[in-house]
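Hey team,

Sharing the Multidrug export protein MepA run so nobody has to redo it. Sequence (452 residues) first:
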Amino acid sequence: MKLENNLDTDHIRELVWKLAFPSMLAQFVSVLYSIVDRMYIGNIPQIGAPALAAVGVCGPVVTLITSFASWVGIGGAPLMSIRLGQKNEKAAEKVVANCFVLLSVMSVVLMAVIYLFKDRLLMAFGASEAIFPYADEYLSWYLSGTAFALLATGMNQFIICQGFAKTGMKSVLLGAVSNIVLDPVFIFVFDMGVKGAAIATVLSQLASCAYVLAFLFGKKPLVRITFGGYDKRLMARVLTLGLSPFLITASDSGLIIIMNMVIRHYGAGETGDVLLTCNTIVQSFMLMVTMPLGGITGGTQTILGYNYGAGRADRIRRAQKHIVALGIVFTAIMFVIAMTVSGYFAEIFTRDSAYVDMSVRAIRISTLGIIPLAIQYEVVDGFTGMGAAGLAISQSMFRKTLYLLSMLALPAFLGVENVFFAEPVSDVIASAAAIAVYMVFSGKVLKDGRRI
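Structure output:
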């Protein structure tokens, strides 16, 4: 078998770049799923603004679904990498088999539960009477593709962690390009509106899912999807290790929901709907920061996990320096973009100058602390990649708690329009805390080497 990248012998800097860039690009392109939907929806004649706000209300539910894929995929992939580092291919194969079953069962249960309670969820998440019909239509159709979304995203991690970063990127590109092509066809040509956007997304996820499964059932990867060898203890280990990325993504979803509720509470009547629409634009921009950043730190986890299993602390330290450097360069570029050309980004969703001005201000505020955020992401994903789930979870939840408290306090004292300052406050403080935790605990984690 010929690997795209050799985790044993490749130069660390070259290895980091080869894994980080495809993963970053894949995550950046995956953001187009939501941005393209929102761009076309925001420009639907007559109903663009309320329909865009409706998709924003659905956004946390969509993110919550994705978080289950991260729970299993990112929870199982480091374990597989560690077993490969220990040259135990049979154990690595067992990890993949158990994760495939977990994702399959989760997708069915999740679709049924969310569909059963979707009306109550949407109303609780901030959907007004004007917004609810569009939100209900979009979410109802989106849920039909739950299995495709979970399997495509979750199982793709096992492609990347075997050194096939370009193949993992292609699976995401396939879905994103399909969505870009299908969206205008279903929304405008077939005149299906919001429903058309959801159907286009489901079909795109189906394409990604088929590509991922075809590869993992094929002959090229060292570790393929097999059946049997199911182990409750192994599943529990996967879910424990994946709890950090799950909580990060799920809490992001919960925080957006709370943000919408805060805006609805303090922004009376039409003001609340306007702010909800602007928040949808802001969250779309923030996805362009956090998803690719997570691609850099998450896509390189396999280097850390493999060398952790092999007892190579020297390669781990060198890799982390390069990963942090890449993250800082990326976030610095996005900071400059936010401060200079975010108006053009807002205008792809709406041409209303009031919406654009409010969105630009909110984007600039929200991105004030994104440069140090690169360090926080690497500390959390680095500990996850080496199996130190407790440290990863504590750091991720510390940042989310700060964000929640700031989000609740700022509107009460400074007005609802200042709720966006919650992001930089939490980013800066959490990044400083992550540095301190890494300096104290990283040495002990690296010494544990082969014990996992």
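The radius of gyration is 21 Å.

Ping me if you want the raw files.
A.
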